[in-house]
Amino acid sequence: MKNNLYLLAFVAAALILVGSKCSPSPVTPTKTLPRAEESVTGQGEGDDLVGVKFVAYTNKAQGYSILRPDNWYWRHYIANEIKDMNPMVVDYFITDSNPLPGLGSEYLGKIVIEVSQLDLSQYAKPVSGLVMSDSFVGQVAAKRFVGERVNQSGEKQKVVEYQFGYKEKSYRLILNSGASMDDQAIFEQVVSSFKF
Q: Residue span of the signal peptide, if any (predicted)?
C-alpha cells in the first residue's frame, strides 16, 4: 500500500512537471484579417456632415458602393421581393432617419436607389415640371432633376432625382423629403460617394 502511494505521488509529480512544459505560448498572427465591409468613414469623408456619420455600403448584386448615413434605418430589396409590386425593378436600396414603411407604401423612404430594366424615357412623367440639369454619378453622365411635387396625400415634397443608364440598366437616386436642407445635404453626400 505504501508503495502504491509512492508510485501515485511520483506519477502526479511527473504529470505536473510535464504539464508545466506544455503550457500554450501566445501566437502572433502572420497576416491581417480582412476588415468588415461596413466601416465608419474617416478623414473628413462624410464625417459629421450635418451631425451625421456615414458608413460604406456595397451592393454586390448591382456592383456599386456608396456612403450611407449611419444610424439611419435602411433596407436592400432584391428582385424576388419587388416583382409583385414592380416587375421591371430589380433592386431597391432605401434609407430613412425614420422607420421604413415597406414596399406597399407610396413613400418608400427619404433616399431611394432604384435599379430597373425600364428605359429612362419611361421616367419622364414623374419628373415633368422639375428643373433638369446635366450631372455625373459615379463618373457616368446623368440627368439631375430638382423641384417640388405634391404627393397623393396632398403634401408638398422636395424632390431631387438623378437618372442615368449603365450596362443596360436604369438607375435612379431619389430624395423624397420635406424641404429640409439637412436631408438634401445628406442625399448629395450619398450621390457623390456613388461608384461602380
A: 1-23
Residue with cell 421591371: 88
- pLDDT per residue over 67-112, tens digit each? 999 999 999 999 999 988 888 999 999 999 999 887 877 778 899 9
What sign has the CA pseudo-torsion 101, 190, 66, 124? positive
Q: What is the pTM of this model?
A: 0.73
How many Å apart are CA 94 and CA 82, to the nearest integer? Answer: 13
DSSP state for residue 40 in the 8-state scheme = B
Residues 54-193, CATH architecture? 3-Layer(aba) Sandwich (3.40)
Torsion sign, CA atoms 147, 151, 157, 161: negative
User: Position of cell 420635406?
Assistant: 178
Grid cell, residue 100, equals 421604413
Domain ranges of the chain: 54-193
